[in-house]
Design a protein that fits this description.
By secondary structure, the chain is mainly α. The protein is built from three helices and two strands. Helices cover 50% and strands 4% of the residues. The protein has a two-stranded antiparallel ribbon with strand order 1-2. A hairpin with a 4-residue loop joins strand 1 and strand 2. The longest helix has 29 residues.
């Protein structure tokens, strides 16, 4: 089980990303539009730099939904490799069976 503070910090980041998503998209569109003047594009980049760090999507960490583990996660299932193996062995994940020979 991961530290609750780490899990909560990541949840705060997710909320902040959602809150600033429209601003990031609008400013990024302006900054990457080659038809706009260079000074306008530069101003958009400066505004992007003033937004909070944790509002950028790359700051969010993929964590296990059950344990909060930060490494070894399967995106499709949203759980860590350890929990995946445990649940698959118990037959709790539909369509997944542990191979044996």
């Amino acid at each position: 089980m991961a530290k609750l503070s780490s899990i909560e910090k990541n949840n705060r980041r997710k909320r902040m990303v959602k809150k600033f998503a429209s601003r990031w998209a609008r400013l990024k569109e302006i900054a990457n539009d080659s038809k706009r003047p260079a000074d306008e594009r530069f101003a958009a980049r400066l505004k992007m730099a003033t937004l909070p760090r944790n509002s950028h999507p790359t700051r969010v960490r993929n964590r296990c939904a059950l344990t909060g583990r930060a490494r070894g996660n399967y995106r499709k299932f949203g759980i860590s490799r350890l929990m995946f193996r445990d649940l698959a062995s118990r037959g709790m994940i539909p369509g997944v069976t542990k191979s044996s020979w």
